[in-house]
Amino acid sequence: MTVDRILSAGWAATYDGDEATLEMTATVFRTLNRSFPTLQAQQYDIYCWAEDRAVDSRGYARPNYMTHSYATTGVGNGSVPSGGKIEAVWVTDSTPPSMLFVAAEGVKTEDTLQVVLQLNEPGTVWCQVAEPLTAASSVYCREDDISSDPSAQCYWETFMKGSVALGTSFSAEVPLPFTYVRVEMNRIWQKGLTQGDPLLPDWETEYKIFCLAEDDWPSQAQASDLTSVYFNASSLSPQRSTLPQVVAFKDAAGTRSTLDLSPPNLTVTSVGTTEQQITVLATLSEPGTVS
Ligand SMILES: [Ca+2]
Ligand SMILES: [Ca+2]
Fold first, then answer.
1. Which domain of life is it from (predicted)?
2. Mean pLDDT within 1-20
């Protein structure tokens, strides 16, 4: 990095005794007449160069400049800098992953739903089912019960991440962006979020699928081989989907049912006969046809 390239980027501020602020939003290449916006969750080296406002005895400008070697030497101790180069500065990641719905269906058993989705960045995704608005039951969390009110019976943060101990946590790690991720769910939260029950086979009820994504930005930053001397890991927190984003995903996923893998059970309640016919009264354990 040369001093003229530092100057050509055009990021400058005047120091008059108070802290000077420089806001840089791009890497600039004047010679190429191009600039590239800084990207979230990326590291950059920053080079600083300065001149003073010294004047000679007649009042003419006689500034003193930082040398090229000082501008390109690492800052070292942040409070007692040895140079103007600040290495490996993270640009903050302040946006949650975007969730792209791909497909959802019943799989494997009569109590398993699977959702397939993608994230636009690495992270973790949690999914959960709720009953649709048309459900008659008042036992389970219904789609309109999912709430941002911490006192609600289906408070969204507890609802979404579930409980490993209660078998209601369904998640997947997402190591790469834009790859297919599958999450399987086989239980549904009761209202109150203290118990989960198996999903029912398709002819008994339909379900809605909610998913929430969280990026791995703090662990990514903390695991980096090199960080700036001003890096403060304590201020980092992962970026997580908002409730409206979770609800939007649910709407995109639509209404889904588990598989039906069992034949119906037949119960004959009576058999009557006349000279011309035999009448059988029977019920099935599920909607179907008796022959
Ligand atoms: Ca992010
Ligand atoms: Ca069946």
1. Eukaryota
2. 91
